[in-house]
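so im writing up the methods section and need the Chromate reductase record in one place, dumping it here so i stop losing it
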Amino acid sequence: MTSDLTFLALSGSLRSSSHNTGLLRAVQNLAPHGVAIDLYQGLGRLPFFNEDLEEGPEPAAVADLRRRVREADGVIIATPEYNSAIPGVLMNALDWLSRPTGQHALRHKPVAVLGASPSQFGTARGQLVLRQILHRIQAPVVAHPEVTVFQSHRRFDADGTFSGDDITESLLRALLAELVTLTDLHAPADAI
Ligand SMILES: Cc1cc2nc3c(=O)[nH]c(=O)nc-3n(C[C@H](O)[C@H](O)[C@H](O)COP(=O)(O)O)c2cc1C
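--- predicted struct ---
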C-alpha cells in the first residue's frame, strides 16, 4: 500500500449544519494511519462557470480548487440529493474541474462518493447522477461500497455532527480502504 496519502473532501452542501459536511468530518476521524483528509470549504466562492471566463485569467478560487485536486491523491465527494440530482454548487465545481478537457484536474483522479439525506433513499439517485458525471470526465470511482446514509435527520444533531453507528462507520472505513486501493492502481509510475 502507498503510504502518506492525502485525500481532498468536497461537500456538495453550503449549509452551515450540513449532514453531508458532517459525514465528511466523520470520515476524517476514521481515516486509517497514513491517510490525511483535507476538507475543502471554498465551494461557495467559485464563480458560476462561463466559457467566457476561460479566455481571461483563471479566477483565484478556481485556481485554488484545481491545485488542491491536482495535489491530492484522491477526492471524496459527499453530496446531498437535490431534485433527484446533485446541487448546482457541486455541478458548478465539477464543471470547472472538467476543463480544459484532457488536462482537467479530475482526469484520472480516484474518487469516492457518498451522501446523506433525510429520505429513505439516502441520495441513491443523486449519487447515480454524480457517478455518471465522473465517468464522463474520466475520474475513476470506487464502485463498492455504496454509502447512502438515509434518514439523516435521525443521525445528525442540530450542528450537523454525525451520531455514529457501527454499520455506517464500517461502511465508511471500507469506502476509504477502497479509495486507497484505487489510488494505488492509478498512482503515477514514478510514485510507486
Ligand atoms: C432544492 C432541494 C431539493 C431537494 N431534493 C431532494 C431529493 O430529491 N431527494 C432527497 O432525498 N432530498 C432532497 N432534498 C432534501 C435534502 O436531502 C436535505 O435538505 C439534506 O439535508 C441536504 O443535505 P445537507 O444536510 O448536507 O445540506 C432537497 C432539498 C432541497 C433544498
